[in-house]
Amino acid sequence: MLGFLKAAEHLPLRADEQIEPTYRRLRWQIFVGIFVGYAGFYLVRLNFNLAMPYLVDQGYSRGALGFALSGVSIAYGLSKFLMGSVSDRSNARFFLPLGLVMSAAVSLTLGLTRWATSSIAIMFIMLFLNGWFQGMGWPPCGRLMVHWWSHRERGRIVSSWNIAHNVGGGLIGPLFLVGLAWYGDWHAAFYVPAVVAIGVALFAVVMLRDTPQSVGLPSIEKYKND
Fold first, then answer.
1. What is the pLDDT of residues 42-82, one digit of tens each?
2. How far is the C-alpha of 13 from the C-alpha of 214, rounded, in Å?
C-alpha cells in the first residue's frame, strides 16, 4: 500500500549535454523543497504551547499540561533515530511530505475535535504521535543533502538549510494571531498552521526528487569528482 515510499529506481543516464544544466536546476529546486518542507514541520510542532494558557483556563494545571507536552520530546527522540533507518530505504520525495501531513493531521484533530483535548492522557497520546511524525522531517533532508551535494559542499548547504527551523518556528505566532482574529477561536493555534503545513507538504512533493540516479543523472561523487 505504501509502495510509493520505496527508494526510486535508477533511470538510464541522460545525454552529456543535459547533465550540467539538469543537475544545477534540480539542486536549487531540491534545496528550496527541503528548506520550505522542513520549515513546515515547525508549523505543527510547538502549537500546544500557544494553547496551554487557554487549557489552563479550562481547569488543567500547568504541571499536567507539561507532562502531556513531554510526549512530543519523548517520541521525537525515538522517531528521529528509528525513522532515520526507514528513511535510508525510502523515497525522500514522499517520505518527508508524508511525515508532515501526518503531523498536520494530528494538529487538525487537536483543533477540530473536543475529545482530543478532553484529558491529559489523550493529549499525551496525541502529542506523542505528533512527535513521532515530526521525527520524519530531518532524516530525508539529510539523505537528500548527502546525495545531491558533495562532501566539500555540505558544510555550506547544511548551515544554510538549518535556518529553516527558525523560519518555521517564527511563523507559528503570526499564523495563530491571524486565526484568532479571523475565527475568534483559540483552537486556531492547531488548525490554521496545520492547513498551511499540508500545503507545504504538497509543495515539497512537487519540488523534491529522490537521488540523482533516479532522474538519469550520475552520482554526486562522479559529478563533482569528489
1. 999 989 999 999 999 999 999 999 999 999 999 998 998 89
2. 9
Q: Retrieve residue 199's grid coordinates.
A: 500545503
Query: Which residues touch 98 (CB under 8 Å, ≥6 apart)?
Result: 5, 136, 201
Mean pLDDT of 203-219: 95
Residue tagged 545531491 (cell numbers): 148
Do 172 and 47 contact (CB within 8 A), yes or no?
Answer: yes
CA 185 to each of CA 77, 109, 170, 178: distance values in angstroms, whole numbers, following the listed order: 32, 15, 21, 11
Q: Is 166 exposed, middle or buried (0-12, 13-18, 19+ CB in 10 A)?
A: exposed
d(CA 57, CA 151): 52
Cα 80 to Cα 17, 136, 143, 159: the distances in Å are 39, 7, 13, 19
